Amino acid sequence: MEKEKIISVMKRYELKYLLNSEQLRYFMDQISHYMKVDKYGLTSIASIYFDTPDFRLINKSIEKPKYKEKLRLRGYGIVAPGKPTFLEVKRKCENIVYKRRIALSEKDAFDLIATKEAKEKTQISRELETFMETYKNLEPKYMIIYDRLAYYQDNSDLRITIDMNPRYRIDDLNLHTSMEGLPLIEEGGAILEVKVQHSVPLWLSAILSKGKIYQTSFSKVGTAHKIEMKKKLLNAINNLKMETKGEMKHGFII
Fold first, then answer.
1. Residue 4 confidence class, pLDDT cut points 50, 70, 90
2. Residue 79 DSSP symbol
3. Which of 162, 145, 148, 150 is nearest to 39 (CA)?
4. Element (H or E) spanning 131, and its range?
5. Res 146 pLDDT > 70
6. Which domains does the chain have, with CATH numbers?
7. 202-210 and 21-31 are packed helices; what angle lies between their axes, rounded to 10 degrees?
8. Cα–Cα distance for residue pair 195/16, rounded to 1 Å
9. In 10 A of CB 249, how many CB atoms?
10. Whole-angstrom distance, CA of residue 51 vs CA of residue 132
11. Residues in a beta bridge with 144
């Protein structure tokens, strides 16, 4: 998916909400009276998140610090060779989100991360280089995929996104293979994000309140990491139980 106008710098508040299937139907009905779906309609988005071998960035994010940052490579739909992707540093301080990104091919993005050297020198590319020097040995760890509806309002900075069927995977970490993955939340639910540079309008607050939709802290990649760490822990426990049974069978005592 190519954007007609590439926004390379963003600063705004981002408020997140988890919706069950009933809340999703309610919210989509209500929001249609105030906002329009943008011209791209339902769009599949995939982002590859990079981290250190010991998951320094994701683990810090899970701790919910006042300041955190991430590096990701985003594509819209399955990305054909040579088509643009967006390499982005996302920083969050309190509820304010800052994004700095550049458009380049998927191959060039991976080359930049590997070499820590951008082909085109700009202020943002130098910031990316500095980020990669700070966090050594960055490598792809998770791919997050979802199907997004984005809403806008004329003459307003308010933007709302609904991410349906959020999913993830830990293999085939590229933007050109597929959009398949494992579920992140309950079936039929969605992740609602309210993005605004100033304040949330009263009419939107009323819709959220009536629908019992409450703000929450939710990280897609953080949730994927928790799921995978839980799997590893359960596997380790099961392996230990099997080893224990084997030793007891042969008359050993632990």
1. very low
2. P
3. 150
4. helix 123-134
5. yes
6. 9-217 (3.20.100.30)
7. 150
8. 9
9. 8
10. 10
11. 47, 168
The predicted-structure confidence for 58-75, as pLDDT tens digits, reads as follows: 999 999 888 999 999 999
Task: Report pLDDT for 95.
Answer: 74
Tokens 């799921």 — which residue?
227
Query: Which residue type occupies 207?
Result: I
Is the pLDDT confidence value at 136 over 90?
no
Stated as kind and residue range, the H or E segment containing 210 is: helix 202-210
pTM: 0.88
* Count of positions (residues) in the chain: 254
Q: How many CB atoms lie within 10 A of CB 251?
A: 6
pLDDT of residue 215 exceeding 90, the answer is yes
What span, in angstroms and rounded, lies between the C-alpha atoms of 88 and 103? 9
Question: Within 13 Å, how many C-alpha atoms sit on residue 183's CB side?
Answer: 8
How much of the chain is in helix, strand and coil states, percent to nearest 5?
A: 30, 35, 35
Q: Which helix (H) or strand (E) holds 57?
A: helix 56-62
Q: How far apart are CA 160 and CA 152, in angstroms?
A: 7
The tokens for 20 are 């069950």
pLDDT at 5 over 60: no
In angstroms and rounded to an integer, the radius of gyration of the C-alpha atoms of the chain is: 21
Task: Give the span between the Cα atoms of 20 and 221, in whole angstroms.
Answer: 20
